[in-house]
Design a protein that fits this description.
The chain is built from five helices and 13 strands. By secondary structure, it is of the alpha+beta class. It has a single domain, classed as Deoxyribonuclease I, Chain A.
């Protein structure tokens, strides 16, 4: 049955979160891995952020068959790429105060897909234990009060149950903890032992499937394994409790 005119419609969206290890590994394996996953939104950590970061980010997007939506150097190496299904309405970045360590931050893009609004967020927290919880709280503040549901892909650099993880799941849902989710480890890729990468979503977003991709190609492509979340978004946005149709 077709949804009634004007009623909310559920739209599918594939989101991949991936730490690229600053592109130090097998580039062909990386490109093949991403293209095989065919993301609508690709949330990258450790993307180009220094010399010629704009042209390098654009070249990376072309290799993946995607376009640059937000991020790069202003976002401390977090980069958001999208396919042509996704319309990007606004892009901005955040940086967190850091003393004596690499700068950390987030890339954000206000997007729509088939009329369904969302805000894509890519972030990377510090390797220093003392800095992760305050950075996680700043990140959580950055995605609170948005005018559309948030989809956050992050290298948390910490485990579920940690203070940083708890800060992010205050108001957001850990996709890997949902029914049918995948709590598999993501790092290091050659012998995964720690689950430090995840996709978190607004509670109004449905998680259809969630998995960590552990394949020979993915193990060569980076020191992290990619996380894939297949989502359903409502055209009603954050207030879309009545999901009665499907695209």
């Amino acid at each position: 049955m077709s949804p009634a005119a004007g009623s909310p419609v559920a739209t599918r969206l594939r989101v991949v979160s991936y730490n690229l290890h600053s592109l130090r590994d097998d580039r062909r394996a990386l490109v093949a891995t991403v293209r095989d996953l065919a993301p609508d939104v690709l949330l990258l950590q450790e993307a180009p952020r220094r010399l010629r970061w704009r042209s390098r980010s654009a070249a990376l997007a072309r290799a993946f068959g995607l376009v640059v939506a937000a991020g790069g150097r202003p976002a401390a190496g977090n980069l958001i790429l999208t396919d042509m299904r996704v319309a990007v309405r606004r892009a901005w970045s955040r940086r967190w105060p850091v003393a004596g360590r690499p700068v950390r931050g987030a890339a954000l893009a206000r997007c729509e897909v088939a009329g369904a609004p969302f805000v894509a967020v890519g972030a990377h927290l510090s390797t220093a234990a003392v800095q992760r919880p305050p950075q996680a709280r700043l990140l959580r503040q950055a995605v609170s009060g948005l005018d559309a549901p948030a989809v956050l892909g992050a290298d948390v650099n910490d485990l579920p149950g940690s203070a940083a993880w708890q800060a992010l799941t205050t108001g957001l849902v850990d996709g890997g903890a949902t029914a049918g989710g995948d709590g598999a480890p993501t790092f290091p890729s050659d012998h995964p032992r720690r689950r430090i990468d995840a996709v978190f979503v607004d509670p109004w977003i449905e998680v259809d499937t969630y998995r960590v991709v552990d394949s020979p190609l993915a193990r060569r492509a980076s020191d992290h394994l990619p996380v894939v979340a297949d989502l359903r978004l409502s055209t009603a946005g954050a207030g879309g409790q009545e999901r009665v149709g499907e695209e």
